[in-house]
Amino acid sequence: MKKIHILILQAFIRPFMVCFCIVMFVLLMLFLFKYIDDLIGKGFEWYVLMELIGYQCAVQLSMALPLSMLLSSIMTFGNLGESYELVAIKAAGFSLRKAMTPLIFFVTLFAAGSFLFSDYILPVVNLKMGSLLWDVRNKKADFLIKSGIFNSTIPGYSIRAKSKNENGTILYNLMIYDHRSGNATNNVLLAKEGFMQNSADNNYMILRLKDGVRYEESRAKNAKRYDPRQQFTRFRFKETEQKFDMEAFQMKRTDESFFKTHHSMLNLKQLKMYTDSNRLQLDSIRRNIYLEAKNYVTYLSPYYHEKQVAQIKVKKFNDFLTDYVPKDQRRMLISNALGQVQQMNNVFEMKEPDYKSYVEKDIRYNIEFHRKFTLAVSCLLLFAIGAPLGAIIRKGGLGLPVVVAIIFFLIYHIISTMSEKAAKDGSLDPIFGMWMAIIVLSPLAMFLTYKSTTDSSLFDIEQYKLKLEAAWKWITSKFGKRLSR
Asked: Which residues are listed as membrane-spanning (predicted)?
């Protein structure tokens, strides 16, 4: 029995590692394609990109792990069924469930590890990933000069070069407008040639200019505010340097404390604390709305204050309440009631944004709370679907198993995504929203497990043809005689 257990474990681990690497690579490519515009042309260091990809690998575990579990389980038991090793195991007197016991234990440990990962490690990774991605997306692109086009990315300057060499380090026929003082025409620099390089600390860009002239126009020191007299200065130079501050092009790391309260960056303990605090705020808003509305409902008219009208008993359902009020008081009553209703409506409109904000936070906290558990349970569920499915179809390799795995994973992913979106919108309870895919597919896993243990040929087309032929013969024998009559 130990040899059988080792055989099944070895047959599962290898495809699982291969499938996991392939799925993770595909998901990373999708991530890079999504943010390709935010990464290209900004001069990131290699370690920044590696850090971003490393965080993304951890974030994508929630999708890569269940899909890899489903695909590898189908491939493993498909290969064992195709090579008749499952038949040999059953012929030796061991049931499929008994042979799968160590593998079930291994997958359970894997699911428990994924739960611990989603509770302790994933919130930290989401925090690091969120802050880094925010800084990456907000970083300016590298300074780039295009021939014949003004570049205004450096604050306070507009630079144009008529042409440049192949490396882009030497610029020809330069024109630089310095409008840091607010007027672009106050300071203009012209040069025939400029060599561009960065300083040693990369904080500045240095332009070594040759054969040029600088034009400066300024107001006299003692001139009055509206005095039109100005000073005009012209400098000619053979060689000079112009230094530009490149601080705007450097990536600045945002303080991670600004992102710590996001629901995806909290563990179970923090989620419970934030949920309790949020519900206290909700209860406070509801109490205030109730007390204010109660005051308006209680004092609807001067009749109640003066106690001139006793409690009204409506005789007929179709009667109006104003029919029981004297005619000379009806207009006052209706006007007063409309005013009070308008005031109540104003109160509700004022409280509605805060109330909606806290309700949305409560929903997000609940969704994230259940997400910690659904990752582990989804691994068990998709293994429970894939293992018996592979034993039934008895096909290995990357052909039919991949197609079947993608179909079932798409079903799981579509149900999960739609139900989670419905939960975020408030049209579905967060518990059902997060567990809907597992609830729907659990009976399927039980059915496939039953079929695999009873050696059912679920995907045998010939069997279905025979059943259809038998059904057609029964229909023709039953109803053919009646039609002939």
From this structure: 12-33, 53-78, 99-122, 373-393, 400-419, 431-450
